[in-house]
Amino acid sequence: MSISLQNLQGNYSNTQIQGTWNATTRPTEGAMNMGNTIDLNSLFQNLLQSLLAIIQGLQGDDDGQTKPNDKPNDKPSGQQADIPEVSSAEFNRNAPALNLNAQELGTSEFTVDNNRLDRADGASLRGNHVISNQQQLEDFADAIGVSVDDLPTVDFDNQLLSYSTRDVNDPNSSFGTSASLDNDGTAQVISASTLIGFKPSNESVLDFVSLDREGVEEFASSNPYNEEPLV
Fold first, then answer.
1. pTM value surpassing 0.85
2. HSE-up (13 A, CA, CB side) for residue 227
3. Cα–Cα nearest to 219, from 173, 163, 175
4. In Å, how far from its chain's centre is CA 228?
5. Within this chain, do residues 213 and 142 fall inside the same structural domain, yes or no?
6. Which of 99, 83, 170, 177 is nearest to 133 (CA)?
7. CB-based contact 231:143 (threshold 8 Å)
8. Tally of domains in the chain
9. 151-186 pLDDT, tens per residue?
10. Residue 120: pLDDT band with limits 50, 70, 90
């Protein structure tokens, strides 16, 4: 909708004011006694300008324009949306699943103090989780106290990055990793490993896996975030 001042200007002959007004805007014989000289044309021009400003402000809302105090809902340009995490129990094992291309990216060369993985609110970065955009990757690096350059590079337009924490003393090794997508759009990464006992420490390493992003709406985790992603 576009409204100009010209659209609002009209013939004022129907204005309910008795009498006539001369060029000097002083009332002639028979006119109302207003007490002071009034520039009627300027008065209407000012009113129309004010009305036009109000309409244009409302028009900004109608056209979807963002006002200065509005908070955009979209991610910054080029940033993919977060993938919500749900409990592994919500992965539909009773329906045929689509195999997603998954690639093991290795184990981190750094260790993370478990105090950085556990939070005071009871939530935790331990377990297996998903990172779905570059900003989330940078936030995760900051949360565990490493440089983002120490984390795998992933094309987030086409892939997701999954990680799982493992005790630094854990001697077990993986002998197979796969990713599946159920018919509800929930992805799950499963790794098979040996089962050797060990004494836990206070540090963890991270095992990274990349998987196809297409069709993924949620990620099944053994320790899902309660609400919003922690990082």
1. no
2. 2
3. 163
4. 11
5. yes
6. 83
7. yes
8. 2
9. 999 999 999 999 999 999 999 887 789 999 999 999
10. low
